[in-house]
């Protein structure tokens, strides 16, 4: 589904991503771990189009996407979430979710006068789909609440709902377990498993080892901008190179 070849992203003299190559098979949940500053977020941002690659290639479903702007990559079916969700605080949960599909007829000023039935029909369908998605993530009863009033964990669920509205094939999840209580973490893991069973592929950055061990296979390990190793979670966890990379990060 995704092929990354010898990818480099430099910031000034710093190679945050330093020649990374890997392939994501369709219908897998791949974990991406590594100590702080290893280059995980930069790798995500470069794949999702937030940063232009300094060099190397990125292909999604056989199409080269390296250097395309984020909205083009998003509409091709590759979406990312953020470690700290960014909903529109002054809009309700339902409105935040309905906003996602692009090219809605109501976005064109004149359509609201001359194509009102089309605008209304599209809005109705969008509302219905948003309600289904909110029901799936368990936020239906909060759909009238302002996004700013949600807890951190609920905001993560809202972000997942917003991403699902785009009907993605590949989701890059940035620390879905960060700042989430243990009960909600179980809920999030269940939802991810269910989405995976429905055919969505995931690449997940996560520091929570429970989530990695329970959900991800294979696991990629980054350290100092490079891919250190790749393998099943139990192998990665016991590999001395991985331990050393983490201890190096802690002691550095
Ligand atoms: N926009 C930027 N400009 C300059 N340097 C950056 C930028 N973004 C990241 N870096 C640097 O690139 C390196 C990799 O950072 P990155 O955030 O990708 O690591 P990470 O593995 O996601 O870390 P963490 O687990 O702490 O989130 C760090 O040294 C960081 O300071």
Distance between the termini: 36 Å
Side-by-side strand order of the widest sheet = 6-7-8-3-9-10
Regarding quaternary structure, what we see is single chain
Helix percentage range: 25-40%
Uncertain stretches of 5 or more adjacent residues? none
In CATH, the architecture of the largest domain is 3-Layer(aba) Sandwich
Q: Structural class, judged by helices and strands?
A: alpha/beta
What string, H for helix and E for strand, traces the elements in order?
A: EEEHEEHEHHHHEHEHEEHH
Biggest sheet character: 6 strands, mixed
CATH-wise, what's the superfamily of the largest domain?
A: P-loop containing nucleotide triphosphate hydrolases
Tell me the domain tally.
2
* Beta-strand percent range: 15-25%
Shape: globular
Query: Which distinct ligands sit in these coordinates?
Result: adenosine-5'-triphosphate
Pfam families: ABC_tran, BCA_ABC_TP_C
Organism: Rhodoferax sediminis
GO molecular function: ATP binding; ATP hydrolysis activity
InterPro entries: AAA+_ATPase, ABC_AA/LPS_Transport, ABC_transporter-like_ATP-bd, ABC_transporter-like_CS, BCA_ABC_TP_C, P-loop_NTPase
Main features:
six-stranded mixed β-sheet, 40% helix, alpha/beta, Rossmann fold, single chain, binds adenosine-5'-triphosphate, 252 residues
What features would you describe in this structure?
The structure is a single chain. This protein has helices spanning 40-47, 70-75, 93-98, 111-114, 116-137, 152-165, 182-197, 209-215, 233-237, 240-251; strands at residues 2-11, 14-24, 29-33, 55-60, 63-64, 78-80, 170-174, 201-205, 219-223, 226-231. With 252 residues, the protein is of the alpha/beta class. The protein has 2 domains: 2-87 and 166-251, P-loop containing nucleotide triphosphate hydrolases (Rossmann fold); 90-149, no CATH class. The strands form 2 sheets. Strands 6-7-8-3-9-10 form a 6-stranded mixed β-sheet, sandwiched between helices. A 4-stranded antiparallel β-sheet has the order 2-1-4-5, with helices on one face. α5 packs across α6 (152-165). The two termini are 36 Å apart. The mean pLDDT is 88. The structure holds adenosine-5'-triphosphate. Adenosine-5'-triphosphate (ATP) binds at residues 11, 14, 16, 34, 36-42. Keywords: ATP-binding, Cell membrane, Membrane, Nucleotide-binding, Transport. It comes from Rhodoferax sediminis. This is ABC transporter ATP-binding protein.
């Amino acid at each position: 589904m995704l092929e990354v070849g010898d990818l480099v992203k430099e910031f000034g003299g710093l190679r945050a991503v330093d020649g990374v190559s890997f392939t994501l098979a369709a219908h897998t949940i791949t974990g991406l771990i590594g100590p702080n500053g290893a280059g995980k977020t930069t790798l995500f941002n470069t794949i999702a189009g937030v940063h232009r690659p300094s060099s190397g290639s990125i292909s999604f479903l056989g199409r080269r996407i390296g250097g395309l702007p984020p909205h083009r990559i998003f509409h091709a079916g590759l979406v990312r979430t953020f470690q700290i969700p960014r909903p529109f605080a002054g809009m309700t949960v339902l409105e935040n979710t309905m906003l996602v599909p692009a090219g809605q007829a109501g976005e064109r000023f004149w359509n609201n006068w001359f194509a009102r039935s089309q605008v209304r029909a599209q809005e109705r369908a969008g509302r219905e789909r948003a309600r289904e998605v909110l029901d799936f993530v368990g936020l239906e009863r909060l759909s009238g609440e302002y996004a700013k009033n949600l807890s951190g964990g609920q905001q993560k669920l809202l972000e997942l709902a917003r991403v699902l509205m785009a009907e993605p094939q590949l989701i890059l999840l940035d620390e879905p377990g960060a700042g989430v209580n243990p009960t909600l973490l179980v809920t999030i893991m269940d939802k991810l498993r269910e989405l995976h069973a429905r055919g969505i592929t995931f690449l997940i950055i996560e520091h929570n080892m429970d989530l990695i061990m329970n959900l991800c296979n294979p696991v990629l390990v980054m350290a100092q901008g490079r891919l250190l190793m790749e393998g099943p979670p139990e192998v990665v966890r016991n590999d001395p190179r991985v331990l050393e990379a983490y201890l190096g990060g802690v002691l550095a």
